[in-house]
Design goal:
Blueprint lengths: L1 H23 L9 H8 L3 H27 L4 H14 L18 H13 L3 H26 L4 H10 L2 H6 L5 H17 L5 H15 L6 H15 L1 H22 L5
């Protein structure tokens, strides 16, 4: 599968480079259209190349994600998250309940797909459609964040590397908890780097970071490093409201589900 995805990516990218080369660097036999010549005289070649590659990346992304969400066989995790989520959100069981379904991940990894099914209907295809929608949200936020860090180029480059990886596109089109976590992390990163970096922006970023830990526990290092970044950026005293907001969500989330850290 890895070789297949690598070959597919290289093929699409080679087509894009070939088309771009024919248009931008015409030879005696092949001349670029007049509209393109006028465009090239007045625009940034680097940005033009990135936009051409970006269009190919979006094609790869939509083709791979949609076909993967429809045709890929299910895996154990998808059914586990979906079924346990339904049992938890229907009130039949609660996370970490004695003699209930095994809550081997953080509660939101089950509750989020459970509530999605309660609202939009039951079934794996509903959850995969939700994953595709969340992946679109994640890519939009990735573009906005990258563009804030490196204007004009950063957003296109960030989405380019994401979209040109069919393995990632396929993985995030499945009904896995990683989709919810990645979206929450991207929302958090957007409020850290993609906006005015105000107190409210940082507070919201820390809240979403804490929620992401309640979805998958391996995000805890990000939550810790983010709080250290706030202290370094604003100083301990000024960052106290930000630290308190994230800590409150983190602690209340654990108390609500009686999660015991051993």
């Amino acid at each position: 599968y890895s070789l297949y995805y690598a070959g597919q990516t290289a093929f699409y990218f080679a087509i894009g480079v070939l088309v771009y080369g024919l248009l931008v660097f015409p030879t005696d036999d092949v001349q670029a259209p007049g509209w393109w010549t006028n465009f090239a005289k007045n625009n940034d070649f680097k940005l033009t190349f990135l936009l051409a590659a970006f269009a190919i990346a979006m094609f790869v992304f939509f083709k791979t994600a949609i076909s993967g969400g429809i045709s890929l066989p299910t895996i154990m995790d998808e059914g586990s998250y979906g079924l346990k989520g339904l049992l938890f959100t229907s009130g039949k069981y609660t996370p970490f309940q004695d003699y209930g379904p095994w809550t081997n991940k953080m509660p939101l990894s089950f509750l989020l797909p459970g509530y999605i099914q309660q609202i939009f209907g039951h079934g794996l295809q509903v959850l995969r459609s939700a994953s595709f929608g969340l992946m679109l949200v994640m890519m939009i936020l990735l573009f906005l964040t990258g563009n804030s860090i490196w204007p004009k180029y950063g957003g296109v480059l960030a989405v380019l590397f994401f979209g040109l990886n069919p393995a990632i596109d396929n993985f995030y089109s499945l009904a896995n908890s990683q989709v919810y976590t990645a979206t929450l992390l991207m929302v958090s990163a957007y409020f850290v780097f993609g906006r005015s970096q105000s107190l409210w922006d940082f507070t919201l970023a820390n809240i979403f970071a804490a929620i992401s830990v309640l979805t998958r526990e391996n995000i805890a290092p990000y939550f810790l490093l983010l709080n250290l970044y706030f202290i370094w950026k604003m100083g301990f005293r000024k960052s106290l409201p930000i630290l308190a907001s994230g800590a409150a969500i983190f602690i209340l989330g654990h108390l609500a589900f009686q999660i015991i850290i051993v």
